[in-house]
Design brief:
single chain, about 180 residues, alpha+beta, GMP Synthetase, Chain A, domain 3, SH3 type barrels, 2 domains, 5-stranded antiparallel β-sheet, 3-stranded mixed β-sheet
């Protein structure tokens, strides 16, 4: 396992940077990342999950960007609680460095960057651009594993394998009842 002082040498990300792999969604399980492993229990203790984590250098500062989610709406207060809770661990991870910390919600129309994110959005509205029919399929995400997902939409339930999905986004409009 790498030490905290090795973390600032390269960018770390919870999700895979290459979303489109051969025209399909790629599933990459969480890699062992000491910073993720250090922050995740703190975030989970606040009732949330880490969607994305990245560390980069910018103008002499170490930037840590964290995207978090939970059941229901992630508000400014939630982001503030996470920010305050992770500061001590980040100060230990990057001693003496000037830190810029950003905590955000995924937003109502987040582009899903890796298929492993789907499990975090069960019960949420999703729309997927399908390669097999060259069109969008939308609905409420019922289940997701490392090979496929199940959406419940206006036309019933549909099971989609990740290799048939070119891209996907959160879609709040699927959650709104008429």
């Amino acid at each position: 396992m790498k030490s905290f002082d090795q973390l600032n040498r390269k960018k770390r990300s919870r999700s895979n940077d290459s979303f489109f792999v051969g025209g399909a969604v790629h599933y990459s399980p969480r890699k062992e990342d000491p910073l993720f492993e250090a922050l995740n229990p703190v975030v989970q203790g606040l009732g949330m999950s880490i969607v994305e984590l990245s560390v980069s250098k910018q103008r002499g500062k170490t930037q840590v960007r964290l995207t978090v989610t939970k059941k229901g709406v992630v508000g400014v207060g939630d982001c503030s609680r996470v920010h305050h809770a992770i500061v001590p661990r980040l100060e230990l991870a990057f001693p003496g460095e000037d830190l810029y910390i950003e905590v955000a919600s995924p937003g109502i129309d987040r582009t899903i960057k890796d298929a492993s994110e789907f499990q975090l959005y069960i019960g949420r509205g999703i729309r997927c651009y399908r390669t097999d029919i060259s069109d969008w399929t939308a609905g409420i995400l019922q289940e997701a594993d490392d090979h496929h997902l199940v959406l419940r939409g206006a036309k019933g339930t549909v099971e989609l394998s990740y290799d048939s999905i070119a891209k996907a986004k959160l879609d709040y409009s699927q959650e709104v009842e008429d």
